[in-house]
Amino acid sequence: MWNRIRALVWKEFLQLRRDKLTLVMILFIPLFQITIYGFLNNDVKHLHTIVLDESRSQESRDFVQAMSATQYFDVQGEVSSEAQIRDLIDKGKAEVAIWFPPDYARELRGGGTAQALVIVDASNATVAGTAMSVAFGVGQTRSTQIMFDRMGYGQATKPKTPIDLRIRPWYNPNLRTPNFIIPGLVAIIVSMTCVMFAAASIVKEKERGTLDQVMVTPVRPLELFLGKVIPIIGMAYAQMTVLLVLARVAFNVPIAGSILLLYASAFLFIVAMLGVGVRISTVAQSQAQASQMSFMMFLPMVFLSDYIFPIHGMPWPFQVISELIPVTHFIRIMRAIVMRGVGLEVIWIHAAKLLLFIAFIWTIAVKGMKRAAA
Amino acid sequence: MSAPLLEARGLVCRFGPKEAVKGLDLTLNAGDLVGLIGPDGAGKSTTFRMLVGLQRPTSGTIVRTLPDEQVAYVPQVFALAPDLTVMENMKLQAGLYGMKGAEARIHELLSRVDLDRFKDRMSGALSGGMKQKLALCVALLPSPRLLLLDEPTTGVDPVSRREFWALLHQIHDDGVAILFSSPYMDEAEYAFRILFMYDGHLLATGTPESFREAMPGVVLRVLTRKRRKVMANIEALNPLDLFGEGEQIRARFTPQDPAPLLDRIRALEGVEHVELSEATLEDTFLHALKEQDHATEATSQISGDVKSPAPAPPSDSHGGPRHG
């Protein structure tokens, strides 16, 4: 049995070695993606900021100074009218504008309530959200400071704030995007490899008629199947290894948990995704159809798997779909092991869900294969 | 007599409403060289696929007394990996059959078909004839006792075809039983036993000699564009058979001297060309086809059902020809 499987695996590797385009895809797509995502920075800092200061006072300058000190706002210059604000934001030259009315300093000095306006370009929701919350924080801090001054407290007698809120971002203290994105990227790339190659390699043989030649030899269906999937499993593990090494070496992503557990759980994920690929191969009549169907699978994988967009904010039907997608669970496993360094006591539930998916997808894949062979 | 290598009884294969094979009986014995001859769509490839287990019959039985390893199959289309070299395809086959130390056998086979010097060439880059030789070598590698070849010479040039048939006879002389299929009537001559297949069933079976003996006399091939009128006129000359299709009419006679007959037919209105020869296997096939049509018509008239199926196919036998 193993001699026959070895012959089939040898054949697959020979064919792969000669398929330059596929080799480029296997090697370069992961490298390309990890490079992009590795350097990608989701931190919203250094927002282009303009100031309309009709107050022309020390107080307004202090506020601008406080905003700049956060590093979220880079003041590009001053403007002299609301029309100019609109023009610069329209043209995308500014993302934030701070507007002090003429009576800003007078109100502060007189003990009243001074108004200041922060205008944010909300066409990018991520940028707007961060800018608004940071600006609000700066405003609150300045207000508290001014209130204490009005109440006559000096630096030494200043009362303590009732709540001392401290925030500790665990597992990714610097909030680095690569730490968060790369474990998900590994899951996405491995799933692409498994689904596309399993589907394409079987459909290619069907199209060429070369499967018949093998089927009439003593090779059993299970051996034929193993001969097809073992090289793909090898490729998937190779890609995963390259990505994790790059993540660690080039992008300084720490791997906190057990590598062994990571690779063991990856096996479940690979088997699950191979099932999807094999199922596609039983339906698709051509390689073009197989790649179209594979591509259709990737959209929900990317958007509904917690990879980029948090799933908890989505409507419940999407949350249900997300739970049914194996990528979701492998991304959770990856993040749990890579970032949080936890073990089986945490990931077992996701491993169990992957096993359920494997049972489901392989049942229908084998049915499809039997129907196709009948 | 030893048990047949392969015996199929009542093979039926349906694809949805279409019945590709309609109750076929077939026996293959050691030493056989059998040609399954019929036009495209006759059901030959489906029959082969059922015989080698690639297609499950809708009904019927196939009994093979040989182990799987001793039955080799060469499909109609080139089914070896085009992106592997000649040698790699051979080695793959050796691996699939668990053959150790197969190098000597591989070189022997490749040398025999003059492919040894192309052993490092990609299989997809071989000519049609060379591809067929390679497919044959791959099939012969595990030393089968039964070789099934589905249209082995389709798309192969005439010179390579001749070489291929010579090679096949050598293989047969080595003790390998062979069943091949072909849409070409002239290739039926290469078989020791012929099975004419049409529309999913066997029309006639026999040896080339028995077919010729069953159609004594001469056959006149008449070319005309006034088919109906010329046919009526020839019919008046009382031929033994009158058949054919399209612009060609075939009439069989047993005259003492064919020259006057030839002159009479040439003189008929609408006759453009006349040729005379002994009955060929193609004549036998067309004659069998006509006989079947008559039988079908008769069955339809009796049952009143114009869509009634063709009469039960004749079973494959080793005796003289049997026309359906």
Give a brief outline of the structure.
Chain A has 14 helices and four strands. With 374 residues, chain A is mainly α.
List keywords for this structure.
heterodimer, A: 374 residues, mainly alpha, abc type-2 transporter like fold, 2 domains, 4-stranded mixed sheet, 14 helices, 4 strands, elongated, B: Rossmann fold, Alpha-Beta Plaits, 7-stranded mixed sheet, 4-stranded antiparallel sheet, 9 helices, disordered C terminus
Descriptive account of the structure:
The complex is a heterodimer of chains A (374) and B (324). With 374 residues, chain A is mainly α. Chain A has helices at residues 2-18, 20-39, 58-69, 82-90, 104-109, 125-150, 177-208, 210-215, 221-249, 259-283, 287-303, 316-324, 326-338, 344-373, and strands spanning 47-53, 73-78, 96-100, 117-120. Chain A has a 4-stranded mixed sheet, with helices on both faces. In chain A, helix 13 (326-338) runs antiparallel to helix 14. The mean pLDDT of chain A is 88. Chain B has 2 domains: 6-209, Rossmann fold, CATH 3.40.50.300; 216-278, ACT domain (Alpha-Beta Plaits), CATH 3.30.70.260. Chain B is built from 9 helices and 14 strands. In chain B, strands 5-6-7-3-8-9-14 form a 7-stranded mixed sheet, with helices on both faces. Chain B has a 4-stranded antiparallel sheet with strand order 11-12-10-13, sandwiched between helices. In chain B, strand 8 and strand 9 (201-206) form a beta hairpin. In chain B, helix 2 (86-96) runs parallel beside helix 4 (128-140). The longest helix of chain B has 23 residues, at 281-303. Chain B starts with 5 loop residues before the first strand and ends with a strand.
